[in-house]
Design goal:
The complex is a heterodimer of chains A (302) and B (327). Chain A has 302 residues and is an alpha+beta fold. Helix content of chain A is 53%, strand content 15%. In chain A, the strands form two sheets. A five-stranded antiparallel β-sheet of chain A has the order 6-5-4-1-7. A two-stranded antiparallel ribbon of chain A has the order 2-3. Chain B is of the alpha+beta class and 327 residues long. The chains are: A alpha+beta (302), B alpha+beta (327). Chains A and B meet through helix 2 and helix 10 of A and helix 2 and helix 10 of B.
Chain lengths: 302, 327
């Protein structure tokens, strides 16, 4: 009796709060936005998973619960203003930010979508769903322990999608991770992705590009010694230095070749035997052997 | 000393030296086994202008028969086992190659060099180089075979076994028989290597991972809308998670068990078996709770929370059911 009274009081307070303030939330399944709370009413637009919602009203219509939402539809580019639309969504797939474990629920849906995207024959648009859902976690729950990782994963998926489609890279989202979560693992990972935008497309057989890239990776490693990408960055720098050495060797510039060779060895030796660097320490051991034996990394053997 | 005693003594001395020399020989020959790395080319004679005999892939079983220094370059005389498929007997080829490309158990850090080469081959395979996957598999196996005391040996055997397993699984599950419900309707993925991992390195992470792969042979092809498959698979995954609580796959196994029960909620409902539907819902939520409690780190806790929420809200789970009908 006491418990049910307490629950009823809590529900009344929750509903009052809901009625007086706009709640934020998102949606776990794509759904149709309707002009009024009925499936027979005019369909305004299909709303994708992970779209951020401002929820202003909840209503029961027949057996179904409906929520009135307004949504900012982003422009084609980041600089284009968002267009606002509103309408009614069936409440079942909607997660309100104040729901218990809502951050975990949305994050879990994002992981699920990401896994779908990785599978052959997975759901179309699953990667974009994951990107929006992760972003929603970071926007709706800025203090959640999942916020940093969610923002990073969202920015990384966008980065990978842009890279795959040949679109010019937009650093904004990765920089947002760095500015909102500075000196974290997520900022380190975002900074590593940003190197991509500075890499050459084709080396054209000339040492300038691999030398520049080696410097980029080494610089990253020095600035982010705690990064999970430290080993990969040092290894990438070492391989590029080894390649530069071979390129100079082939153009008979012995002095520059020796300098690059020595640098490559020194970088690889930073990793070899360092169990904390996992597979990179073994790849470094393999690289050291090839460098010491003068097995060419680029071109043919002498 | 009598003549008889003298003969016996001489025989013992001969036997002793024979044993010692056998031991030494065994050690020498053992140190001559290994593999080749990085695009080795075999020639008829130790000369880059001589006729080419073969281009053995990385990881091929190689016996180093001798070395020779010619014009300042070291050459290795090797015997390589080239063909090892089910339709032809292994073929061995001898020839000369650049000695730098031959890694044997006598090479300092040989285990680490081969492990690094195998990791690189795996990365190449991910980027679409077809033969790299098999090269990685062989390279890992050579570490286990010729560097038994290396700390990398258990992990290497597991990787070799897993790569072979995944290759065979791809074939088995692409055949029409994989669309049959019963796992007995399709060819079994060869378990020998996985069993070897479990036997040689029991109670390790690698043994846990091998046991997880073996579940592939037990799951249904298609469920065909019947509840017995997801019921059986729930038990399989839950049992695995409880038997291998420390496994890196334990949380995933529990999630798969919970997901199957969640799918059963709608299957039983559609069959008007409401009691069983409710029971499946309770079991799914219990398993999801177990994930949250036992494995709070990583992605499986949020996924369990998501599953619980979907069950509470009555969201359709089976719409995506087809994707996990396979493990």
């Amino acid at each position: 009796m006491k418990a049910s009274l307490l629950a009823a009081t809590a529900a009344w307070f929750a509903l009052s709060a809901f009625a007086s303030a706009v709640e934020r939330g998102t949606i776990l399944r794509s759904a149709d936005l309707h002009a009024s709370p009925s499936t027979n009413s005019e369909k305004v637009q299909t709303i994708d998973r992970g779209t951020e919602l401002n929820i202003s009203e909840q209503r029961k219509a027949g057996n179904d619960s409906w929520v009135k939402v307004s949504i900012a539809i982003p422009g084609a580019t980041r600089n284009e203003p968002a267009r606002e639309i509103s309408g009614w969504l069936q409440a079942t797939p909607v997660v309100i930010a104040s729901a218990a474990n809502a951050d975990e629920v949305i994050y879990g849906e994002a992981v699920d979508s990401e896994q779908q995207a990785e599978q052959s024959g997975g759901r179309k648009g699953a990667a974009q769903d994951a990107m929006r859902l992760y972003s929603a976690v970071a926007q709706l729950f800025p203090n959640s322990p999942l916020a940093g990782e969610a923002l990073w994963r969202s920015a990384d998926i966008r980065h990978q999608l842009d890279k795959g489609s040949g679109k010019p890279p937009d650093d904004f989202y990765l920089n947002q991770v760095i500015s909102r979560f500075p000196k974290t693992k997520w900022a380190d990972l975002a900074a590593f992705d940003l190197i991509d935008t500075q890499l050459c497309g084709d080396w054209n057989g000339l040492p300038d590009c691999p030398a520049k890239e080696a410097a980029l990776f080494e610089n990253y490693a020095r600035e982010h010694p705690q990064s999970p990408k430290f080993g990969e960055a040092v290894f990438n720098a070492a391989v590029r230095q080894g390649t530069v050495a071979d390129m100079y060797r082939m153009s008979n510039d012995k002095e520059k070749s020796t300098a690059a060779h020595t640098k490559a060895l020194a970088l690889a030796q930073e990793l070899a035997g360092n169990a904390a660097q996992g597979e990179w320490s073994y790849r470094a051991a393999d690289l050291i052997y090839k460098l010491q034996q003068n097995i060419p990394l680029y071109g043919v053997s002498e | 000393m009598s003549a008889g005693k003298q003969i016996r003594w001489a025989a013992m001395v001969v036997a002793f030296f024979a044993l010692v020399s056998c031991g030494v020989f065994a050690q020498v020959t053992d140190q001559q086994h290994g593999t080749v790395i990085a695009g080795a080319v075999m020639y008829v004679t130790p000369d880059p202008n001589a006729a080419q005999v073969a281009r053995p892939n990385r990881g091929r079983d190689t016996w180093l028969m001798g070395k020779s220094m010619i014009d300042g370059k070291e050459w290795a005389h090797i015997m390589v086992t080239m063909s090892q498929n089910s339709f032809s007997a292994p073929k061995t080829i001898t020839g000369w190659t650049d000695a730098r490309l031959v890694i044997t158990s006598a090479t300092p850090n040989g285990d680490q060099i081969l492990f690094g080469e195998a990791v690189q081959a795996q990365h190449e395979a991910e980027n679409g180089r077809r033969e790299s996957e098999e090269e990685a598999m062989r390279l890992y196996y050579r570490i286990y075979e010729y560097f038994r005391s290396s700390p990398l040996a258990p992990e290497s055997l597991w990787h070799a076994a897993d790569l072979e397993w995944q290759l065979e699984k791809k074939g088995v599950f692409s055949r029409p028989s994989a669309r049959e419900m019963s796992p007995d309707a399709r060819a079994e993925i060869d378990e020998e290597m996985m069993r070897k991992v479990m036997k040689e390195y029991p109670r390790t992470k690698w043994s846990d991972l091998a046991a997880y792969d073996l579940l592939d042979n037990k799951i249904c092809g298609r469920w065909n809308g019947e509840t017995k498959c997801p019921e059986k698979e729930t038990d399989l995954f839950e049992h695995y998670a409880h038997e291998h609580a420390q496994s890196p796959k334990a949380a995933e196994a529990l999630y798969k068990a919970a997901w199957r029960q969640a799918v059963l909620v709608d299957m039983y409902k559609a069959d008007h078996q409401n009691d069983k539907s409710q029971k499946a819902k309770r079991r799914a939520m219990q398993i999801a709770q177990e994930i949250s409690t036992k494995y709070p780190e990583g992605d499986w806790k949020p996924r369990a929370a998501q599953l619980t929420y979907e069950l509470q809200q009555g969201l359709d789970i089976s719409t995506e059911g087809h994707r996990e009908a396979r493990k």
